[in-house]
Amino acid sequence: MHSTPAKAAVDDPLAPAGRRSGRQRAGTALGFALALAALVAAVVASLAIGARSIPPTEVIEALLGRGSQNVVGIIGELRVSRTLMGVTCGAALGVAGALMQAVTRNPIADPGILGVNAGAALGVVLGASVTGGLGLASTVWFALVGAGVASAIILLLSASRMAAASPVRLTLAGVALAAVLSGFSQALVVLDESVLESYRFWQVGSLTARPVDQVTGVIPLIIAGAAISLLLLRGLDALALGDDSATSLGVKPGRVRIWSLVAVALLAGTATALAGPIGFIGLIVPHLARGIVGPGLRRIVPLSIVLAPALLLFSDVLGRVIGGGAEIPAGVVTAFIGAPLLIALLVSRRRVVVA
Predict the structure, then answer these.
(1) Tens digit of each residue's pLDDT (9 = 90 or more) over 1-10
(2) For labeling, which of 206, 216, 230, 265 is most exposed (least CB within 10 Å)?
(3) Which residues are listed as membrane-spanning (predicted)?
């Protein structure tokens, strides 16, 4: 929720308002600088570390088209693609998670936990069954529809009496929805063996699933989702005060929620079509951003765009390092990182502010 001047004065009664706002801006700037540094480090690590570690100088030469052909092939054909995948999908999932936490007023909302990724995955499987393959061009639109339907169900549940009073109830409902949708996906895969092998690898969430040309082809969808999200930030901050207060400030709650649904579908649906259903990025990153820059989506969402790719890329690199020669997909690593945080949030008694 927003901090009022009275609240700020209670927190630090001797500090002038100008000094408080100045310190807040300085803290926000420092947070963004550290997040950008982490993202740059993650990109460098993603390009340099793998089955064969490559010094940063050779990475730079390979990006410029110089050096040995072997290194140029590893960097240009393999690692640039998965790094671009990590940046694209990470940003999409981080923003989608922040939006879901805000619009449902649920601190443990996440596209993976609440079934949005499972809806997109079901759309991908349906698209693969119809078109005969898991090619991105033929499945991404099915994924967007699946993510949109799942988002609409969660939005309706969040407004119901059953779930509105308890974040845990909404989470349980989302987990049940994800289980049902995943069950339908598994049934379709079993009935259509032509997509079984590709689906088995894709479903765990991996950054190696798509070539770079497919990634760049859907980036406009993610940019559109991010742009809608940024335009909604003022309205979502107002919704944190309650629908009546938001209306008095000139915000139309219904319109904000509908456009939030569109943005989440674009972001989570496209990311899932690209890399598979990667969970917990949308849960972890908004809480990290909130801890760095405080409440207020106008700071949390832009910071999530930077933090989420860094976390996903570091997870991917960690999977390469600890696999002992066999890479562990990024989706598995994020599950190991995110599951303990989810448990901690569920058992925590302290109130978590989501906007």
Answers:
(1) 444 443 433 3
(2) 216
(3) 29-49, 83-100, 112-134, 140-158, 170-191, 258-288, 328-347
